[in-house]
Amino acid sequence: MNLQTEHQGEVLLITVQDDRIDAASAIQFKEKMREIVAEPSARVVLDMSNVGFLDSSGLGAVVAVMKALGPVRRLELSGLTTTVEKVFRLTRMDTVFVIHKSLPEGIRRAG
Prior knowledge:
111 residues, 3 helices, 7 strands, 32% helix, 25% strand
């Protein structure tokens, strides 16, 4: 699982470089994310614009990361593709997460 991280002020931006978060990669995704979010930051934004497929295992991994952050820090999602956004909507997880159509204002990818 390839994750790119950037600190932008008080925001930790994590970009998923892989095109899938599924049963084959969900455990690795969850473990890497837990290591990354151990770093202090006021906000955590997960850019999923490269992810074209997310199954129930992948969704469970994203939820597990949200829970690992605890009640103080929220996991914000950004750039959901149509297919991935549909998974969040059908499971009503779109009511649990803060979801941005694109990167939130003031945040941009380096490079």
